[in-house]
Design a protein that fits this description.
Radius of gyration: 16 Å
CATH topology: 2,3-Dihydroxybiphenyl 1,2-Dioxygenase, domain 1
Number of helices: 2
Structural class: alpha+beta
Largest sheet: 8 strands, mixed
Oligomer: single chain
CATH class: Alpha Beta
Number of strands: 8
Strand content: 35-45%
Helix content: 10-25%
């Protein structure tokens, strides 16, 4: 039986983490693993890990930890059709992106963006 995601998902693009001290966490990734970090316009820290990013944003009143996973696909329309066949109705996010309802993803928001290869 085919899966909703067969051949549609290309790569992990971003993992979002809420952190009390994003700059200190980014420095730890740099010091211990050699990953380069930069500050984003919104104050988050972006740690580059190969072709993916760890986005460290201030936790504020939110609990620290994993807050979203972003995947990339080269066929968003095909992925949406496959998800619907599997009984999952994706939600619109931004243009060219969908959000999979958290009840299907272990309560971690899953965002899928279209990136043409």
């Amino acid at each position: 039986m085919a899966k909703a995601t067969d051949k549609s998902l290309v790569r992990l693009e971003q993992v979002e983490v809420a952190a009390a001290a994003p700059a200190a966490v980014a420095a730890t990734y740099n010091r211990n693993f050699g990953f380069q970090a930069r500050e984003a316009e919104d104050g988050a820290m972006i740690v580059q890990v190969g072709g993916a990013e760890i986005r460290l944003r201030p936790a504020g009143a939110e609990r620290e930890g994993l807050s979203a996973i972003q995947l990339a696909t080269d066929d968003l329309r095909g992925l949406i059709e496959g998800l619907r066949r599997a009984g999952i109705e994706p939600e619109a996010a931004d243009a060219g992106a969908i959000r999979i309802p958290p009840r299907f993803t272990g309560n971690v928001p899953l965002i899928v963006v279209e990136r043409k290869a």
